[in-house]
Amino acid sequence: MSKKPSEILQNANGKLLPEYEFDYQKAKPNRFITSSTSQPLKVVVLDEDVAQVFTPSEAVKSSITIAYSIHTKLTIKKIVRRGLYRWA
């Protein structure tokens, strides 16, 4: 009968084998993962009356996202309508 992977890593006492013990003092940060703190935070300060309507931060974020997408679409339509950009 073959051994399970957990049985291979452990000795008779149930402790990890010495080659599998990890020294966290020697660990280096993963260079392939960017930390969330690498990008600066953007803070929006709301007036009191607006803050009472948008209590959760997700509501504020979704409203700003919708407003930005509408603004972008309208700007693109203006550019195309005025002939400043022509499709190839």
Structure commentary:
With 88 residues, the protein is mainly alpha-helical. Helices cover 41% and strands 0% of the residues. The chain has three helices and no strands. The chain has helices spanning 5-9, 48-53, 57-81. The longest helix is centred in the last third of the chain and has 25 residues, at 57-81. The radius of gyration is 28 Å and the shape is elongated. The protein starts with a helix and ends in a 7-residue tail after the last helix. The mean pLDDT is 76.
Radius of gyration: 28 Å
Mean pLDDT, rounded to whole units? 76
User: How big a fraction of the residues is strand?
Assistant: under 5%
- Tally of DSSP helical segments: 3
Overall geometry comes to elongated
Structural class: mainly alpha
Question: What order do the SSEs take from the amino end to the carboxyl end, as H and E?
Answer: HHH
The residue ranges in which pLDDT falls below 50 over 5 or more consecutive positions are none
Q: Biggest sheet, in brief?
A: none
Q: What distance lies between the first and last C-alpha atoms, to the nearest angstrom?
A: 68 Å
Helicity, in percent?
40-55%
The beta-strand count equals: 0
